[in-house]
Specification:
The structure holds 2 protein chains of 2 kinds. Chain A is an alpha/beta fold. Chain A is built from 10 helices and 11 strands. The longest helix of chain A is centred in the N-terminal third of the chain and has 15 residues. The radius of gyration of chain A is 17 Å and the shape is globular. Chain B has one domain: Class I glutamine amidotransferase (GATase) domain (Rossmann fold, 3-Layer(aba) Sandwich), CATH 3.40.50. The C terminus of chain B is likely disordered. The radius of gyration of chain B is 16 Å and the shape is globular. In chain B, strand 11 and strand 12 form a beta hairpin. Chain B starts with a strand and ends with a helix. Classes of the chains: A alpha/beta, B alpha/beta. The interface between A and B is medium-sized, with 30 and 31 residues. Chain B: Pathway: Amino-acid biosynthesis; L-histidine biosynthesis; L-histidine from 5-phospho-alpha-D-ribose 1-diphosphate: step 5/9. Chain B: Keywords: Amino-acid biosynthesis, Cytoplasm, Glutamine amidotransferase, Histidine biosynthesis, Hydrolase, Lyase.
């Protein structure tokens, strides 16, 4: 049976990992290559590199770094951040990315999803959505969760899948950073309307949050987190062993 | 030297890098003369069957692959590259493949239970047929080890050639072989250490010194 995926997310700015912390045995925790390799060696099923650079020079640096990562680490790599055009897809795919995650770029220009899916295949296009409840309605936010687009999140996701998005990352702004667990009701609402893989993001504070996620939502495909892995609060081997002990299929 | 066939389909960066990491010499090429000189061939591929088959034909590489296979040269097709080795695909119509492994390519939706997600994407375990000797391609891999899949179609009607299967509501062909022609539905170049072991075993095929001491 297919296993549940555990995905660390690395924010990269000007070629360095932001929020890198102390890991034993790593000489440079801010190096995307070293940290990526550390996660890959410890059993991460996939890695997400998020480019939060704003400058053109920083972006060129990111593609160089991505090439280094992709020639060192042989698990699936997803790249997001600053993806607005097909040329952006092309740029990161040529450097070894397997999937490309779109967010604001797709909101500005929804045909980006369709064009990218036609050219590179559905499996390559990941639609990442930042969602927050406003008057009990799930709304899509953009610009790092600061701006309400007014879009109904479930409508937007349904539309995205119709246009060819092969995977959905649901990032709950309501639970993000709170570390009290994933947003189970929001994720359930999304799982109910799509038949493509859904990745949960936002809210993981500890191992038990992942156990709860996969037990309460058997249809969820993956859990994504950043800081709890970076700060060593949760190690991937321990997390996966605990999931296995709770009857959840993982790759060990 | 392994020829990684470049026919304008898909991204060959990871495949080339993964062979480099194993210190296996390879060249990305669409040049027939170079392909003929190499000892082994890898046929990659992503995207739609019909487009890829057409590109192979337009580059004149379909004939080269068939000739080299008939000479006994080891060939490994990966993902869509595996499907192209088969007789025919039913992806959006009916399309001829290279016919190097007997069987057809069909939608996984035909065999898996309703409700399971398509594509079959993620890490799944390899199971080797119990009544057959393990293929040399998997000499370094154990039953139940995980590899990375992304596909909506699978190779069917090929029970004789199946050398590994994966369970996704139903058994799906994970790898197949007919003599010197091999195909992997999964991506060894994205399957971490297990994938590297498979690429190494392919590299060592037919090298008598290394075959002897298993």
């Amino acid at each position: 049976m297919i296993t549940k995926r555990i995905i660390p997310c690395l924010d990269v700015k000007d070629g360095r990992v932001v929020k890198g912390v102390n890991f034993q045995g790593l000489s440079d925790v801010s190096s995307p290559v070293e940290l990526g390799k550390y996660y890959s060696d410890s059993g991460a099923d996939e890695l997400v590199f998020y480019d939060i650079t704003a400058s053109v020079e920083g972006r060129a640096l990111f593609t160089d770094i991505l090439k280094q990562v992709a020639s060192t680490i042989f698990i699936p790599l997803t790249v997001g951040g600053g993806i607005n055009t097909l040329a952006d897809f092309d740029r990161v795919l040529k450097c070894g990315a397997d999937k490309v995650s779109v967010n604001s770029g797709a909101i500005k220009n929804p045909s980006l999803i369709e064009e990218a899916a036609k050219r590179y295949g559905d499996q390559c296009v990941v639609l990442s959505v930042d969602i927050k409840r406003v008057d009990s309605v799930f709304r899509v936010f953009q610009n790092g969760g600061r701006e309400n687009t007014g879009l109904d999140a479930l409508d937007w996701i349904r539309h995205g899948v119709d246009m060819g998005a092969g995977e959905i990352v649901v990032n709950s702004i309501d639970t993000d950073g709170v570390k009290k667990g994933f947003d189970i009701p929001m994720l359930k609402a999304v799982l109910d309307i799509v038949n493509v893989p859904v990745i949960a993001s936002g809210g993981a504070g500890g191992i038990d949050d992942f156990v709860q996620l996969f037990q309460k939502l058997p249809a969820i495909d993956a859990g994504l987190a950043a800081s709890i892995f970076h700060f060593g609060e949760v190690t991937i081997p321990k997390l996966k062993e605990t999931l296995r002990d709770n009857g959840i299929a993982v790759r060990l | 030297m392994i020829a990684i066939i470049d026919y304008g389909v898909g991204n060959l960066f990871s495949l080339k890098s993964s062979l480099d990491s194993q210190k296996i010499d390879s060249v990305v090429t669409g040049d027939k003369a170079v392909i003929k000189q190499c000892e082994k061939i890898i046929l990659p591929g992503v995207g739609a069957f019909a487009d890829a088959a057409e590109s192979l034909k337009q580059c004149g590489l379909d004939k080269v692959l068939i000739e080299e296979a008939q000479k006994g040269k080891p060939i490994l097709g990966i993902c869509l590259g595996m499907q192209l080795l088969f007789d025919k695909s039913y992806e959006y119509g009916e399309h001829e493949g290279l016919g190097l492994i007997s069987g057809t390519v069909r939608p996984i939706a035909d065999v898996i239970p309703k409700g399971l997600k398509i594509p079959h994407i993620g890490w799944n375990a390899l199971h080797f047929p119990k009544h057959k000797a393990k293929s040399p391609l998997f000499r370094y891999v154990n039953e139940g080890e995980f590899v990375y899949f992304v596909h909506s179609y699978y190779c069917a009607d090929c029970e004789q050639s199946v050398i590994a299967a994966a369970e996704y509501g139903a058994p799906l062909t994970a790898a197949a072989a007919d003599k010197n022609v091999f195909g992997c539905q999964f991506h060894p170049e994205k399957s971490g250490d297990v994938g590297m072991k498979i690429l190494r075993a392919f590299h060592e095929l037919g090298a008598p010194g290394k075959e002897r001491h298993k």
